[in-house]
Amino acid sequence: MKCRVCRGPAVIDLPRHNANFCPEHFFQLCRRQVERAIKDFTMLEPGDRVLVAVSGGKDSLALWDLLVELGYEADGLYIGLGIGEYSDESLGYCQRFADERSLSLKVISLRSDLGYDIPTAAAATRRVPCSACGLTKRHLFDSAALEGGYSVVATGHNLDDEAAVLFGNTLRWDIEYLARQLPVLPARPGFPKKVKPLVRLTERETAAWCILRNIDYIVEECPMAAGNRHLGYKAALNAIEDQSPGTKASFYLNFIERMSPILANGDLAEREGLGSCTRCGSPTPSEVCAFCVLVEKSTRHEPVPVEFIARRAGSGGRR
Amino acid sequence: MKCRVCRGPAVIDLPRHNANFCPEHFFQLCRRQVERAIKDFTMLEPGDRVLVAVSGGKDSLALWDLLVELGYEADGLYIGLGIGEYSDESLGYCQRFADERSLSLKVISLRSDLGYDIPTAAAATRRVPCSACGLTKRHLFDSAALEGGYSVVATGHNLDDEAAVLFGNTLRWDIEYLARQLPVLPARPGFPKKVKPLVRLTERETAAWCILRNIDYIVEECPMAAGNRHLGYKAALNAIEDQSPGTKASFYLNFIERMSPILANGDLAEREGLGSCTRCGSPTPSEVCAFCVLVEKSTRHEPVPVEFIARRAGSGGRR
Questions:
Q1: Higher pLDDT, A273 or B285
Q2: Helices marked H in chain B — which ranges?
Q3: Closest to A254 (Cβ–Cβ): which among B172, B247, B250?
Q4: Residues of chain B whose C-beta is under 8 A from some C-beta in A?
């Protein structure tokens, strides 16, 4: 197996590119895919201060690594979700990554700083854990970016993630969610710009990036996500990708290119008319935003152990 | 296992309806689903003369049976595609069905009447067989309906078919194909109205209809379709349906309800500007229509045996 570029020994085969690569030219390919996503979708500009949402997993650490490599000023923000040992371990991976590279990592602990955790929030709000978690993370990343003077929040969503979410939204033809599924959300009053620079890389590629770059990451999936529909959508797309390499990339990228523009108008109209949350000031269609409602319910609820929730975790495919 | 309606012994479970049915109430459910499709999409009106495209398979014979049962004047049209024994056998099923019910069946033989067959057309035009077949059938059903004074052509596409085609078109975000994927195509100059009354029934349900109604049908799949992408799409959707019964129906029906209207405008514009084929008079954007080009190439080509083509059959997912 030889590298397509230099004919040296290859370490990875990428069927959708119909080629094999040595570490050096695999790194080059990954960098180019990220640069292309950043350029095509106008994600970042020179001088941007980027806040990277890091979880300790392969995607977010690869993203932070790539952005620093590409010359961006990028700090990390880790949110301790209080999901038992999984959370304790995942913080360790983030902290070691930052320390070894002298990067700045901010840490928010839901339990210490806000008085709740995700298992408790799921129970208190009767949301599925992935929903309570997504709402929490979106709010805290947004507010931390605005307070810290960051111009952009970057998240590690990869091609598999985006394709699976797109598939879920497509299976329901949820027009509102489809219209919002973009690799860039521009800044609006009360919201920072949000970007997903890894949308052109698969999760196999981000894993290989970490392994070949000696980045240690948490391999386990979140115990609360087990069995959610999102994983079923990934499996279905992977079965098709095996038969026809490249299907996943064209599914996602053709959607962005051809379908998003058709859906764009309706969404913009829907976004006007947002007021401010009377408690935290965040934009919301209601008097009190969904995050503040979640915090109120969750902090009043007695703590719920992870094991109590993980078994009955369900959906979580939307975003 | 008891029938949901009468509590008598049930013979079939339908997870997406979360219920079991005895033969009588299963028939009632099928009739109601077909009536609802006909009504919701304004497919047929009293007095319509319907030409049913029959292949000898479960779907088209169930459709013919259902339309006659529901009181429509429906004749059958069978096209002998020249796919070896498969074609010979499939005609037999259609003829016996018609004879037993004193229904009128018209038969066109590609080889005898037009001088080619599908394996030869696939080779001569370098199309995948499903593409040569689809083009041939569309043209011949359209022209037979117009010449025979039929107001509508009805085809046996079921929910699984439509969902799989929709999935394929969605994976590519082929906007033009998506815009055209409707359960009813209205009559236009040179084209009869075309309807798919079985879009609310799955292929398991049409098979059960035939078995319980003692309709003998050809069970084998067309040997030229083996391995096409369409079957991969069906398998992927079935895997998701098993986890979440009802997903397939909501995928297709929500598309028709929510997405088709958004896509409709572009398609209408694209359809104007059709001229007439200088050979057959059919509407076409070119001087000679695709069907006449296929006939010309295929009739000049020496006959190709089925076995020569079936092995390398590929795609065919679009329509």
A1: B285
A2: 23-40, 58-69, 84-101, 118-125, 129-148, 159-172, 175-180, 203-212, 229-243, 247-254, 260-271, 290-300, 306-310
A3: B172
A4: 170-173, 175, 229, 232-233, 235-237, 239-240, 243-244, 247, 250-251, 254-255, 257-259, 262-263
pLDDT in tens, B287-303: 999 999 999 999 999 99
Residues of chain B with C-beta less than 8 angstroms from the C-beta of A259: 173, 175
Q: What is the mean pLDDT of residues A61-86?
A: 95
B5 lies in some domain:
no
Query: Quick check: is A212 in a domain?
Result: yes
For tokens 């309606």, the residue is: B5
As for how many domains chain A has, the answer is 1
Q: Do B236 and A232 touch (CB under 8 A)?
A: no
DSSP chain A: -B-TTT-SB--EEEGGGTEEE-HHHHHHHHHHHHHHHHHHTT---TT-EEEEEE-SSHHHHHHHHHHHHTT-EEEEEEEE---HHHHHHHHHHHHHHHHHHT--EEEEEIIIIIS--HHHHHHHHT--HHHHHHHHHHHHHHHHHHHHT-SEEE----HHHHHHHHHHHHHHT-HHHHHH--SEE--BTTB-EEE-TTTTS-HHHHHHHHHHTT-----SPPTTTTT-HHHHHHHHHHHHHHHSTTHHHHHHHHIIIIIHHHHHHHHHHHHTT-EE-TTT--EESSSS-HHHHHHHHHHHSPP--HHHHHTT-------
Counting beta carbons within 10 angstroms of the beta carbon of residue B300, is it exposed (0 to 12), middle (13 to 18) or buried (19 or more)? Answer: exposed
- Residue A53 neighbours by CB distance under 10 Å: 24
Domain holding B56, by residue range, is 31-312
Task: Specify which of A132-141, A257-266, A307-316 reaches the highest per-range mean pLDDT.
Answer: A132-141
CA A232 to chain B, closest CA, distance in angstroms equals 7
State the complex-level ipTM: 0.82
Within 8 A of B173 by CB-CB distance, chain A residues are: 251, 254-255, 257-259
Residue that is written with structure tokens 């509508």 in the block: B152
Lookup result for tokens 């992408």: B229
Note whether residue B8 is domain-resident: no
Q: What is the mean pLDDT of residues B125-129?
A: 90
Q: What's the rounded mean pLDDT across residues A8-19?
A: 96
Separation of alpha carbons A197 and A39, rounded Å: 10
The answer to the question of residue A239 being in a domain is yes
Q: Report chain A residues touching chain B, CB-CB < 8 A.
A: 170-173, 175, 229, 232-233, 235-237, 239-240, 243-244, 247, 250-251, 254-255, 257-259, 262-263
Entry pTM: 0.86
Task: Return the structure tokens found at B170.
Answer: 């969605």
Q: What is the pLDDT of residue A195?
A: 98
Residues of A in contact with B257 (CB under 8 A): 173
Binned at pLDDT 50, 70 and 90, residue A266 comes out as: low
- Residue A270's pLDDT is 53
Write down the mean pLDDT value for chain A: 92
CATH number for the domain including B124?
A: 3.40.50.620
Question: Pairing relation of β-strands B49-54 and B193-195?
Answer: unpaired
Asked if pLDDT for residue B279 goes beyond 80, the answer is yes
CA angle A93, A99, A103 (to 5 degrees): 105
pLDDT at position A319 is 39
What is the Cα–Cα distance from B143 to B156, expressed in whole angstroms?
18
Q: Which two tokens stand for residue A53?
A: 């949402």
